[in-house]
Amino acid sequence: MTVSRRSFLTTVGAGSVGALALPAISWRGRENLFAQGVGQAPASRKADRLLAASPGMIRIDSNENPNGPGEHVFAAIRNHLTESNRYPVKSEDDLTSIIAKKHNIVQDNVIIGCGSGELLRASVQGFTSSSQGLVVPEPTFESAGAFAKFIGVPVVSRPVDATLHTDLDSLVDAARAAKPGLIYFCNPNNPTATVHSHADVVSFIDKVNKASPNTTILVDEAYHEYVDDPKYGTVIPLAMSNPRVVVARTFSKVFGMAGLRVGYAVAQPATLAKMTPWLLGSNVSQLSLIAAAATVGNEAHIAAEQKRNRETREFTRKYFEKAGFKVPECQANFMMLDIHRDAKAFKAECIKHKVAVGRQFPALPTYARVSIGTMAEMKKAVEVFTATLA
After folding, report:
1. Which CATH class is domain 35-68+300-389?
2. pLDDT value at position 45?
């Protein structure tokens, strides 16, 4: 049973209320404002995001879908505007039913959240403690790690390998030593855009189960639809048989709904029951639920977005390689490459020319993360890169 907004604030206590006032702790598409100081969003970071959103800016900094959700979603929203005065009830069930059908599971295997970020936060609350911490790769999407640190949960990080892939053996070793409550594993990984095969992930989960039987593994498949590697595959079927596996998905990427904030988690009912007490009631708006229900099964839209992303990603990759930069594997709607200079300074210079790229990641200070925009946007962006990297 979910808790109300009032009871949730009472539960977490006054010391945590300030965090809830900052929606960045559950944002995915937007950069996590806690990245430079958990619990306090620096003014400089907020200013950076506002600058990236200024008129005329090419926004390739937050892995958003530049094409949006499509006219079919806008039409669905317009058709249900008169329901905006009601709290969502049936529409929540409608969406979980559609998601369950899509994955050939039942509704009890699905919970929805305000983006997948809320679900990552709920997984930290549900599976970790001061004695059973969190293990994460470094770098990775920071929402889970930042929130864990904020509530006093110990976090153990392990660096990615030389090819920017998550070092699965290192995570297993960390699980064996730390006996964590949760391992967060983003596949494909953000910000590195690298991916592990289905066989490797299944083997990894099996090793963690043996090394630390009480550890839950959350596999974040936010960029699932963008992967071209034929060896890759979802582990949602594994979550149906293994109570220590949770899979998170989002509507923020291929579905183009980053601003509407919808995500979902898939696992066994008893596993999800540890997360649901930490979700706010009516955590997804009526119109967002309608929008998600309209697009989740639209295979034609998904295929079109995959094609657009694949073509524009390849154009961008070829540009960087021709310019003399090595582009690691990229299996998402962004890429990360070593530009052989300070990434923060590179970002600042690009901003001057109306192009916003990803922020600097401390673990890889000379690597820039570049999201994939429209083809027209990327053609303009590479002109700026040419001047900036000269």
Report:
1. alpha beta
2. 64
